[in-house]
Structure formats: structure tokens, C-alpha cells
């Protein structure tokens, strides 16, 4: 089943039902967010967004797109946050965004999918690339941290 909606303006993509990834343009355009019924934004860009609308909840994370940044420290807390958003209402729509939707937001989105779907990192990446076939995870340090996270989840599952 294909979930992605490929936007002609490239603003954002639906990767799984009600779960989107995108960049700054998508996350700061209120009309565009409302068109897609976005209820929550996980902002991974390290700056505060200017959007202050009562019907969209924004969570700001100070993540930096640097090979030295320990993004893995945010995988589990953010996965729990997204899971909580969907527990409140399964129809909530979450946009995970950063400046370009390539490294920070993609890493957080993939970590959530690893946490919540029991799929492997390679399966998730194949799925995303089939829907959004352009640059993603150009920060190899983030990819390596996702590999370690995937391994740790597999080890926990096999020890149960």
C-alpha cells in the first residue's frame, strides 16, 4: 500500500497514515497545514517556529545537523511523544520537520517508525525512498546512530 502524497510544491510527504515529513516551508504555512489537517508539529530545526495557532501544537527540539550531534538521545523520547499524540487521538496528524526535511526530521521520523512498527531500518528506508525519492540522511553520523538504535531494538526484542 502506498501512503505518500507527493506534493507538487515539495512541501511535505505523508510517509505513513497521518505521519508527514517536511521542511521549513511546510511547517510555517498555516493555510497549507490546515489543508492537510496537521494537528501537531515536531520541529527539529533548533529554532522556534513563528507559527502560533491554537489548533496546531508545536514541539520545538534543539537538534543540530552536525556529524557530532548526538541525535540518538532524542530517538526514544520523541518516539514516545509521537506515540502519545496518537494515543490521545489516532486521527491526529503529525508533521516532523526541520529546515529541509532531510536529516534531523527524517532521523526522528525513522526512529519513531523503528520504535512503533517493528520494521527494520532497511525496510523503512526502502519504503520512504519509494515514496520520496530524493536526498535523505545525507548526514552519515545520523544514519549510523539509527543503525545502532535499530540494533538495540532488535536485541531487546530477541531477549524477550
What can you see in these coordinates?
- The structure is a single chain.
- By secondary structure, the protein is an alpha/beta fold.
- The chain contains 6 helices and 5 strands, in the order ββααββαβααα.
- The longest helix is centred in the last third of the chain and has 19 residues.
- The radius of gyration is 15 Å and the shape is globular.
- The N terminus is likely disordered.
Concise account of the structure shown:
This protein is α/β, with parallel strands linked by helices. It has six helices and five strands; from the N terminus they run E-E-H-H-E-E-H-E-H-H-H. The protein is 42% helix and 13% strand.
Biggest sheet details: 5 strands, mixed
Strand order of the largest sheet: 1-2-5-3-4
What proportion of the residues is helical, as a percent range? 40-55%
- DSSP strand (E) fraction? 5-15%
The helix/strand series, from N terminus to C terminus, equals: EEHHEEHEHHH
Return Rg in Å. Answer: 15 Å
Average predicted confidence as pLDDT: 89
Shape label: globular
Identify the quaternary structure here. Answer: single chain
The number of helical runs is 6
* Domain unit count: 1
What is the fourth-level CATH superfamily? Protein tyrosine phosphatase superfamily
Q: Low-confidence runs (pLDDT<50, min 5 residues)?
A: 1-8
Tag the structure with descriptive keywords.
5 strands; 5-stranded mixed beta sheet; Protein-Tyrosine Phosphatase, Chain A; alpha/beta
Helix and strand topology:
Blueprint: E1 12-16, E2 19-22, H1 24-27, H2 30-35, E3 40-43, E4 57-60, H3 75-88, E5 94-97, H4 104-117, H5 121-131, H6 140-158
Parallel strand pairs: 2-5, 3-4, 3-5
Antiparallel strand pairs: 1-2
Helix pairs in contact: 3-4, 4-6
